[in-house]
Amino acid sequence: MSTLLLITAAPTSIHAWHALGLAQSLKEKNEEFRVFFYQDGVHVANSLNWVPDDQRNLTAEWLKLDIRLPVCVSAALSRGITDAENAQRHQLSLHNLSQGFELTGLGELADAVESAQRLIQF
Questions:
Q1: Taking the chain, what is the end-to-end CA distance rounded to the nearest angstrom?
Q2: Which keywords belong to this entry (predicted)?
Q3: Whole-Å CA distances, 103 to 21, 93, 106, 107
């Protein structure tokens, strides 16, 4: 069964951590799944997030899964997160998308919703 995890919760929310836990379980069981970061969930892709040494880093944990990590480009840009290409396009002086994450359009979300057998939103 293919699953889409739609992550809209900010990284400070327990729901964002539950999404990661489910993704880890699905990967461990070799079950087919995709993720998509949308709304406040895009904050996980901000390379400027700082996490104290005594806390787990949600961004780093997602990267350990070694899966595609698509992030809604519009939601990211509206929250001050961009890659180098969009920074240049929008004449921004810096880019801060964490390496390993990828800005994509809502067409990717639509495709994921269409092909998934179940959708779970966090």
A1: 19
A2: Cytoplasm, Transferase
A3: 23, 18, 10, 12
Domain coordinates in residue numbering, the chain: 3-121
Determine the pLDDT at residue 1.
Answer: 85
Geometric angle at alpha carbon 66, from 37 and 75, rounded to 5° = 15
Residues 6+ away with beta carbon under 8 Å from 113: 4, 119
Helical H segments across 1-122, by residue range: 14-28, 58-64, 73-78, 84-89, 106-115
Pair of tokens at residue 8: 């809209």
Is 72 assigned a catalytic role? Answer: yes
Catalytic position from the list 6, 44, 58, 72: 72
Q: Could you tell me the CATH superfamily of domain 3-121?
A: DsrEFH-like (3.40.1260.10)
